[in-house]
C-alpha cells in the first residue's frame, strides 16, 4: 500500500526553527550559494545570523518563511521591510534558499509567491532583489515576473572564492503584466523533440553546430523549422531561430509572427532574441542554457526587458540534458576528445 507524500507547507519561522535554518545556510554556502557568507561558515555563526533575523521578524522589520515537507526543512526565504519614511511601499527579497535535495520541486517558486503575498498584506507593492549571475537564477526570477534593472560587476566574493557579478531585479505586485502564452509540458516536449531531431540533422548531414528550431502557430501548426546554417550558407545570421522565423514569415505572408511559439534547443543569442521581439513572437521555449551568450536570462535578459514595446514569455530547460550533451559532444569531437555518455 502506497502512502501519500506529505504536502508542502509554508509557514512563518519561529525561534525553534533556528537550528534547521542554520544547517540550511551552511549547506547553501558550502555549495557556493551567494547569500552573503564565505565558506567554511561555522554553524555557530549561522545560528547567530538567524537569531538576529528572527528577532527582526518579531519586531515587524522582516518576514521569514520556511517551506516544510513532513518534518524536513526544504527551503526558506526572507522579506526585509524597508523602514525609510520615503519608501513605505517597498520590500527587499533576500535569503531565498532551497535544500540541495529539493531542487527542481518548485519549492523556491512557492516561497517567493508566499513572500509576495506577505508583502501585500503589509502594504508593500514594490519588491527589489539582487541575485548572483549564475546559471538558472536569472531565468527563475524572470519566470516569476521580475524585471531586470541592471548588472553590477564584481559585486561580491563567491563563498568558494572569486569575485562575481550580481543582477538587480524589481517587480510591482499586481501590476498589469503582458499575457503569457498558454504552456503545456507535454506539448513543449513534443515540439522540442522535433527541434532536437533537426539539431541532429544539422550535425550529421552538414557538420553544423547542432541547434534546431521549430516555429509553431497559435493553433499548434508547425509553420517554420530550421537548424544552424552559418557554415553551409556563409551567413553569420543563419542561426536555427532565424531560419525558422524566415520560413514562418514566408508561410504566413507576414513579417509579424503574432501568437507563435518558437522552440529551440539552445538559449537564443542577442541577435535571435531581438529578432523575436521585432517579430512579436509570443513565447520562446529553449532546452540548454548558454552561459556565455544566452540572451533569455543567463547572460542578457533581452526578451523581458521592460523598455521594449513587446516582451516574449520564456520557458527554459525543456529536455536540457539531451540538448546540452549533444552540443558538448559536438565540440569534444572537434577537439579530438571522447564523447560524454
Automatic annotation (TrEMBL):
Gene3D superfamilies: 3.40.630.30, Cytidine Deaminase, domain 2. It holds the Pfam family Acetyltransf_1. Residues 186-300 form the CMP/dCMP-type deaminase domain. GO terms for molecular function: acyltransferase activity, transferring groups other than amino-acyl groups; tRNA-specific adenosine-34 deaminase activity; zinc ion binding. Binds 1 zinc ion per subunit. The active site is at residue 241. Zn(2+) binds at residues 239, 269, 272. It comes from the Bacteria. It catalyses: adenosine(34) in tRNA + H2O + H(+) = inosine(34) in tRNA + NH4(+). It is an enzyme of class 3 (hydrolase). One of its GO terms (biological process) is tRNA wobble adenosine to inosine editing. Its EC number is 3.5.4.33. InterPro entries: Acyl_CoA_acyltransferase (IPR016181), APOBEC/CMP_deaminase_Zn-bd (IPR016192), CMP_dCMP_dom (IPR002125), Cytidine_deaminase-like (IPR016193), GNAT_dom (IPR000182), tRNA_aden_deaminase (IPR028883). Belongs to the cytidine and deoxycytidylate deaminase family. ADAT2 subfamily. HAMAP family: tRNA_aden_deaminase (MF_00972). Catalyzes the deamination of adenosine to inosine at the wobble position 34 of tRNA(Arg2). Homodimer. This is tRNA-specific adenosine deaminase.
Amino acid at each position: 500500500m502506497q502512502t501519500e507524500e506529505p504536502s508542502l507547507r509554508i509557514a512563518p519561522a519561529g525561534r525553534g526553527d533556528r537550528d534547521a535554518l542554520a544547517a540550511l545556510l551552511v549547506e547553501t554556502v558550502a555549495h557556493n550559494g551567494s547569500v552573503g557568507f564565505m565558506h567554511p561558515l561555522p554553524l555557530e555563526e549561522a545560528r547567530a545570523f538567524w537569531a538576529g533575523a528572527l528577532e527582526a521578524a518579531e519586531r515587524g522589520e522582516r518576514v521569514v518563511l520556511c517551506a516544510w515537507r513532513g518534518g524536513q526543512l526544504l527551503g526558506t526565504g526572507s522579506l526585509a521591510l524597508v523602514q525609510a519614511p520615503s519608501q513605505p511601499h517597498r520590500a527587499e527579497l533576500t535569503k531565498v534558499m532551497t535544500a540541495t535535495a529539493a531542487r527542481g520541486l518548485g519549492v523556491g517558486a512557492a516561497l517567493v509567491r508566499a513572500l509576495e503575498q506577505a508583502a501585500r498584506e503589509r502594504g508593500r507593492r514594490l519588491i527589489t532583489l539582487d541575485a548572483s549571475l549564475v546559471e538558472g537564477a536569472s531565468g527563475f526570477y524572470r519566470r516569476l515576473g521580475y524585471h531586470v534593472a541592471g548588472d553590477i560587476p564584481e559585486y561580491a566574493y563567491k563563498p568558494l572564492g572569486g569575485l562575481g557579478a550580481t543582477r538587480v531585479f524589481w517587480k510591482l505586485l499586481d501590476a498589469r503584466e503582458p499575457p503569457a502564452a498558454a504552456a503545456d509540458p507535454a506539448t513543449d516536449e513534443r515540439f522540442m523533440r522535433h527541434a532536437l531531431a533537426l539539431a541532429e540533422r544539422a550535425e550529421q548531414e552538414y557538420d553544423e553546430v547542432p541547434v534546431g528550431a521549430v516555429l509553431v502557430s497559435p493553433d499548434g501548426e508547425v509553420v517554420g523549422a530550421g537548424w544552424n546554417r552559418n557554415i553551409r550558407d556563409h551567413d553569420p545570421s543563419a542561426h536555427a531561430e532565424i531560419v525558422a522565423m524566415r520560413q514562418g514569415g514566408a508561410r504566413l505572408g507576414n513579417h509579424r509572427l503574432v501568437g507563435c511559439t518558437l522552440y529551440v534547443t539552445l538559449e537564443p543569442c542577442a541577435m535571435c532574441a531581438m529578432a523575436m521581439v521585432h517579430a512579436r513572437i509570443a513565447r520562446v521555449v529553449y532546452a540548454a542554457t548558454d552561459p556565455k551568450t544566452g540572451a533569455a536570462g543567463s547572460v542578457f535578459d533581452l526578451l523581458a526587458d521592460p523598455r521594449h514595446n513587446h516582451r516574449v514569455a520564456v520557458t527554459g530547460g525543456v529536455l536540457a540534458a539531451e540538448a546540452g550533451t549533444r552540443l558538448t559532444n559536438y565540440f569534444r569531437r572537434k577537439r579530438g576528445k571522447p564523447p560524454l555518455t
